[in-house]
Design goal:
flat, seven-stranded mixed beta sheet, alpha/beta, single chain
């Protein structure tokens, strides 16, 4: 009888330890994302962040008249976080620092694209491995905050990925970097000056 209670106690302790480990792991992994989401809300406000939410049914597409002074904010559509490299690449006079300043949101979404795949066959096991070269392209959407109207969009090509190795003993994906922040900010500024 003691053996059953001992085994039960060990299982309970193990389950509690696994639960604690899972909580710590998810907190550590999600902490930076949550902090960046909070920063996006603080800088641009909930309404602006929601305009970039994927599949937002609030946004229409059309032409608009922009205000004389346009203040932009950049948001990552994939996780509703700040896209600071692009926001910081904007001219100072076009950077929104508070929700009340924000007139236009630049919504950015990564669109990965496989551009080439190499195949390798292990001579000893006949196992097939692949190496995929991936470009990290992005889509950018400019949305007027007051009218909730998307007035411009553009696809930006990511930087070239590195070459696949001559041989490998595992499958892998090699990725290039995202498009240059300056290319995205230059496009956005050109659209708000039209």
């Amino acid at each position: 009888m003691k053996g059953i209670f001992l085994r039960l106690a060990i299982w309970i302790v193990l389950l509690v330890m696994i639960g604690i480990g899972y909580f710590i792991l998810t907190t550590v992994q999600e902490g930076p994302t949550r902090a960046s989401q909070a920063a996006a809300l603080a800088r641009y406000g909930d309404a602006a962040v929601q305009l970039c939410a994927q599949k937002s049914d609030q946004v229409t597409v059309g032409k608009i008249k922009l205000p004389d002074i346009v203040k932009l904010g950049a948001i990552n559509m994939d996780d509703s976080t700040l896209f600071d490299p692009v926001a910081q690449a904007l001219p100072a006079e076009n950077q929104a620092k508070t929700p009340t300043e924000l007139t236009t949101v630049l919504c950015l979404q990564e669109v990965p694209r496989i551009i080439h795949t190499d195949r390798y066959v292990s001579r000893s096991t006949s196992t097939t491995y692949t190496c995929a070269q991936r470009s990290r392209d992005m889509m950018g959407y400019l949305v007027d905050v007051s009218t909730k109207t998307q007035f411009a969009s553009q696809k930006f090509s990511g930087q070239n990925p590195p070459e696949c190795p001559a041989s490998t003993d595992r499958s892998m994906v090699v990725s290039g970097d995202l498009p240059l922040a300056s290319d995205i900010s230059d496009w956005a500024v050109s659209k708000i000056q039209q």
